[in-house]
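[INFO] parsing input record for Aspartate--tRNA ligase, mitochondrial
[DEBUG] input buffer:
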Amino acid sequence: MPLRPLCGALRWAAAAGRRRLGSGAGPRSARGAPDFSSFVARTNTCGELRSAHVGQKVTLYGWIQYQRQGLFLVLRDFQGLTQIIIPQDEARSHVKKLLSNAPVESVVRVTGIVCLRPPGQENPKMPTGDIEVKVETAEILNSCRKLPFEIKDFIKKSEALRMQYRYLDLRSSQLQYNLRLRSQIVMRMREYLCNLHGFVDVETPTLFKRTPGGAKEFLVPSREAGKFYSLPQSPQQFKQLLMVGGLDRYFQVARCYRDEGSRPDRQPEFTQIDIEMSFVDQGGIQRLIEGLLQYSWPEERGPITTPFPSVTYEEALADYGTDKPDTRFDMKIVDISDFSRSLGIHFVQNALSYPHGTVKAICIPQGMRYLKNKDIESLKEAARSQFNQEIVDIICRPDGSLKSLLTKFLGQEQQSELVQALKMQVDDVVLLAAGEHKQVCSALGSLRLESADLLEAAGLVLRDPTAFHFLWVVDFPLFLPKEENPTELESAHHPFTAPHPSDMSLLYSDPTKVRSQHYDLVLNGNEVGGGSIRIHNAELQRFVLEKVLKEDSEVLSHLLDALEFGAPPHGGIALGLDRLISLIIGAPSIRDVIAFPKSFRGRDLMGNAPDYVTPEELEPYHIQVSWPVAEAEAKKN
Ligand code: ASP
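[DEBUG] output buffer:
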């Protein structure tokens, strides 16, 4: 989605400008549009002046965006741009000298009179394009040294350089827009939760201790030998303890930490809108989140409709091959196992003979027109290398006949049955896979997304870039086999998630079959939230930790104790704020909606963190670094 310029986007900013016209600099009600010029010496911002201001003497503060031959300059602040006319008369030659010699991005004050631009020189693309300010006095508040890059949205610069000089990148209208929109959305969320629904904003500690399961945590050394704090992955335990403490409805704009190494578009520290409620069920949390998003949704992105559709985990996997389906386009996975049973094809029969054996396919619309042979080959290769899954392609020729390795095994009738089952049309390409259900679904789900990318790169619009498709995914399994050791189980969400009431008895006989009261919120194929109804019974929680997950429950004795003191039934959810905002804006990365993000490798390229500390500084923590390693690292950098 093309990113919107700042000026058009900040409706409330323009509204503030209009209000100023009528009321001068008088006080504003706390609930009205914000007053951007309160408490400071400027009369207006650089995005505010219009023809109705003509004749007024104004004082503006801003950065020199552009200066031309000592005749005029463009002054910029967070709200927009104003053209400034540099005086040419002898009496003000010092002002001319000052402004003509100031390097771009120097910060200045100008005072002058608002005038209409001469006829024909208006700039309809600029909100302030009807006027200019004729300078009377000016002051260079601070001059700018040679820039590492130009502060213009259309100038491409490397991300590493942008991160190193993040404070300069923040001056771009795009980042200004992103951070201000984020702030407005969070403000609306606070309003909805606290003012409309009685939630209490509570801060919870960031120095805590290790939590079993889940992501890797950052450690913080303490002065007690061998003891470390952990930075929490989320305030999960605290928010449950707040429910035991009778807070009833909690929320927090919570900073969370996960030491997940380098992963594209993940940040080691990130923000969640963290929510917990007592006496609530899954439907209650879902309606709350739908209301919250509707209330805080930016008007310029169009309305969102509620309730959001919902699918079960099993349905999501079967239809889309993933637990976070992108429902903006069709191309669902079709199960043709029944049809395939009668075919005398060896690899198909072989696959169907195993437990969970299946034959499935996706149909790529107009694939022959938009994909090259090498695209189809690369899709097949991706399935092979990433999922160990062979794929057979079937092409529907212009005369309606099929081209595939399989056709020699299919009679005419079977071919037309296949065309019908897959709803194939001329020029469509089908990718077919036979094998174990989950593996086949995952491979086809991934190919579905990759082929959508290829089709779009070739010019077919499949996913409306302005559409927002929310989806609830429910009825997850409570436990999944551990990736590194499939004979052991781990929580699909976290160990505090309650089993589905209808599957309670299975917990003791076959825990792998138990569904949970865990729900995820998906937006355009991205997980933007997840939560669950919690276990509030100490005995059940102890059973899950000790008997199913084989965890040391001692680490969680505080929580287990608390559940024994009349803990209310409770549940909650967390929304990933960075991801949500980046999707709303259409930003290419979550780094674009975080003021000071870490690099792909988890480093702060501006301040150069993490950094070395001396052995003396480590002494109080009883820690020694093996220095040869550290020195080698230092040399590498
Ligand atoms: N603490 C969970 C998470 O960070 C969210 C929740 O269950 O409320 O994913």
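[INFO] DSSP finds 21 helices and 22 strands in the chain.
[INFO] shutting down worker
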